[in-house]
């Protein structure tokens, strides 16, 4: 019966195995003259044979500059291979003091999620939280095919990124951001955050004298204050500190029209050719599956002040208006009812100069109270 056994070691190269064989037979190993890449490969090989501690110490004590040069690769291996404690501690110490060495490496986008999360969990990174957020966003974007221009993103684009980053986002220290970073870095990606978290961030960072940018390409902050005043039926309009957040749900140039099951919304239209800004506040929930009408005193349509319109026009629906005259919108390409009527409680009753018009852009926003 043969005493020979075949042993397969696929992770060990011939050159590395020759060194190991010499060590097994002589009890000696000379690594001073070996290339650093061979030493590191030998380290991985010797780990399988439980001969690794000496090599780890040698690399850390005598070849630290090479470890830094190949840092991303070394750091990744230190977590993938068991018993690399000495190398791993060396890498962790560098990351705490110089985190950009991993965040700005060419291999960062291919870093496994669990390793990225282990970095985010650390509380000793010498890097601003806003910068960490940017790196995490870039890592997630690299995992998805997304438009380069954020203004072209659809709701599905944000959902894809949110799903990719669901393990990372809980480990961001949002309340360590600067006020400027909240506005400039978090607000553009607010759809990635849960509503309550985003509200809590607003509570902490919403300084009264600081204007938070409105996520609209059609209306201004002044327009938003005017709409909010109309919603609250204020005789004296708001001039600052808007009590409502206009959370953009749909933009015509980048989304399909679908806000089903969303209540308390503002629709804003920009008329092609005239620059008119028209809109309607709907306090009820949209429901494309139910063709029905509801009574309300709170809904209104409006035409906002622009360069061509000196004063805004507001029209509330006459409470006695018959049901068949009340406007509603179903999911269709053409909407035949004019956005004007003699049945409005308004001195003018005229919201647009035209009964039929083309829309250059439209937006739908949910109205949320600011805490």
Automatic annotation (TrEMBL):
It holds the Pfam family BACK. CDD domains: BTB_POZ_ZBTB_KLHL-like (cd18186). One of its GO terms (cellular component) is cytoplasm. InterPro entries: BACK, BTB_POZ_domain_cont_9, SKP1/BTB/POZ_sf. Residues 83-145 form the BACK domain. PANTHER family: BTB/POZ DOMAIN-CONTAINING PROTEIN 9 (PTHR46306), BTB_POZ DOMAIN-CONTAINING PROTEIN 9 (PTHR46306:SF1). This is BACK domain-containing protein. The lineage of its organism: Eukaryota, Fungi, Fungi incertae sedis, Mucoromycota, Glomeromycotina.
């Amino acid at each position: 019966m043969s005493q020979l056994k075949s042993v397969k070691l696929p992770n060990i190269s011939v050159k590395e195995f020759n060194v190991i064989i010499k060590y097994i037979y002589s009890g000696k190993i000379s690594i001073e003259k070996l290339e650093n890449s061979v030493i590191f490969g030998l380290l991985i090989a010797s780990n399988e044979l439980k001969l690794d501690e000496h090599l780890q110490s040698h690399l850390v004590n005598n070849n630290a500059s090479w470890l830094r040069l190949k840092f991303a690769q070394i750091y990744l291996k230190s977590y993938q291979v068991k018993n690399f404690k000495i190398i791993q501690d060396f890498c962790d110490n560098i990351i705490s003091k110089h985190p950009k060495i991993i965040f700005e490496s060419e291999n960062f986008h291919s870093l496994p999620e669990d390793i990225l999360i282990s970095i985010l969990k650390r509380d000793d990174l010498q890097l601003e939280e806003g910068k960490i957020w940017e790196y995490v966003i870039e890592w997630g974007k690299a995992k998805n095919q997304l438009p380069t221009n954020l203004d072209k993103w659809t709701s599905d684009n944000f959902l894809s990124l949110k799903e990719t980053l669901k393990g990372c986002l809980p480990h961001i220290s949002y309340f360590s951001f600067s006020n400027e970073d909240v506005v400039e870095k978090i607000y553009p990606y607010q759809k990635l955050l849960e509503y309550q978290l985003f509200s809590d961030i607003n509570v902490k960072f919403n300084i009264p004298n600081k204007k938070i940018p409105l996520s609209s390409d059609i209306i201004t902050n002044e327009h938003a204050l005017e709409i909010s005043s109309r919603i609250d039926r204020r005789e004296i309009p708001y001039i600052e500190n808007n009590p409502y957040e206009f959370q953009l749900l749909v933009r015509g140039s980048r989304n399909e029209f679908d806000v089903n099951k969303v209540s308390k919304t503002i629709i804003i239209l920009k008329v092609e050719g005239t620059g008119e800004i028209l809109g309607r506040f709907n306090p009820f929930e949209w429901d494309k599956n139910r063709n029905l009408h509801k009574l309300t005193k709170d809904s209104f349509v409006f035409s906002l002040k622009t360069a061509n319109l000196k004063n805004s026009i507001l029209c509330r629906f006459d409470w006695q208006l018959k049901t068949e005259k009340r406007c509603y919108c179903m999911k269709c390409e053409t909407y035949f009812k004019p956005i004007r009527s003699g049945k409005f409680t308004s001195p003018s009753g005229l919201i647009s100069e035209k009964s039929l018009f083309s829309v250059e852009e439209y937006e739908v926003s949910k109205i949320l109270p600011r805490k």
